[in-house]
Write a structure and sequence with these properties.
Layout lengths: L1 H34 L4 E2 L11 E7 L19 E2 L18 E8 L5 E2 L2 E4 L2 E5 L28 E5 L12 E2 L4 E7 L7 E2 L3 E7 L7 E5 L5
Parallel strand pairs: 1-13, 7-8
Antiparallel strand pairs: 2-4, 3-11, 4-10, 5-9, 6-7, 6-12, 8-10, 12-13
């Protein structure tokens, strides 16, 4: 009888340990899922999935034809120019602030509404003057009755098709849609040295914003 009781005690202890390990693993999974996994993509691993949005590609170079869009150029000045080049809405070739381009996919079952884009905690709002206007960076933009041909300093626009780059009429990104975000740096953006990280938050009105980390001067 003593031997049987001894075996029963061992089995009971092992079952208690199994329940404890299972509970700890489950709690770790949920904590990581909410606060880390799927919510932060890094340039090194480029695991770009989030719960609602995927970062498919980006271009933050001092180069020409960002993400293969003709005339969408940054100046070869060794940095992404923000505050020291802003205030005129000029193109980079005319000493204006520079561009960052991102390719995003809405992976959720519902539309999302991109309220703003944060680069290193600097908020960039959608430029409503680009609504329905064909993207044209071949010459400096002056706002007119039709609108803007590219976003103003410190703002962004949304494009669905780089072959026919008409800018979105609103901030809605439909379920399953792939779009391009064109962000123009502004007076609140410090100049960003090449090879420096840029933290990106896409505010779609959820409690936790999709977040990515990209590298300035790079293309993925």
């Amino acid at each position: 009888m003593k031997k049987r009781r001894g075996i029963t005690d061992i089995i009971g202890t092992m079952m208690l340990m199994a329940v404890t390990v299972t509970g700890a693993a489950t709690l770790t999974y949920f904590v990581n899922d909410v606060f880390v996994t799927g919510n932060l993509a890094t340039a090194s691993t480029f695991d770009s999935s989030t719960k609602s949005l995927y970062l498919l590609a980006y271009d933050a170079r001092d180069s020409s034809s960002l993400l293969n869009i003709m005339n969408l150029d940054n100046q070869l000045n060794g940095k992404l120019c923000g505050v020291s080049c802003s205030g005129t809405n000029q193109l980079p070739i005319n000493d204006g602030s520079e561009f960052i381009m991102m390719k995003i996919k809405n992976n959720s079952f519902d539309s999302v509404f991109l309220e703003d884009v944060k680069l290193n905690n600097v908020v960039h709002e959608w430029d409503a003057y680009t609504s329905g206007i064909l993207l044209d960076t071949s010459e400096p933009d002056l706002i007119n009755s039709d609108g803007r041909s590219y976003p103003a300093d410190g703002r962004f626009s949304i494009i669905s098709d780089i072959a026919n780059p008409e800018q979105h009429e609103n901030i809605e990104i439909s379920s399953g849609a792939t779009v391009y975000l064109l962000v123009k740096l502004g007076s609140n953006d410090p100049d960003i040295s090449l090879s420096k990280g840029i933290r990106i938050f896409l505010n779609v009105g959820t409690i936790t914003s999709p977040e990515f980390l990209i590298e300035s001067g790079n293309v993925r």
